[in-house]
Known about the structure:
- By secondary structure, this protein is α+β, with helices and mostly antiparallel strands.
- Helix content is 21%, strand content 33%.
- The chain has one helix and five strands; from the N terminus they run E-E-E-E-E-H.
- Strands 3-4-5 form a three-stranded antiparallel β-sheet. A two-stranded antiparallel sheet has the order 1-2.
- The longest helix is centred in the last third of the chain and has 15 residues, at 50-64.
- The radius of gyration is 13 Å and the shape is globular.
Amino acid sequence: MDDFTQIVVTPGKPVQVPINPTSYPLIGKGLQGAVFKLSDDRVVKIYSKKIYCLREKLVLERVGEKSTIIPAV
């Protein structure tokens, strides 16, 4: 299995992925980060800035526990 922590995502509109030494395909990108497919039932989002990750984690934890359509963190 490839090490997704080696993927580099830089700020932009949308973000840029200058380095992806893995075989994981990019499936989407936006203003905060890029999403890569790890398997048929698992993805990872790599953020361009740590603050974006912390904010989204907080929202997903608060809203996700009450929703059946938001993925588990």
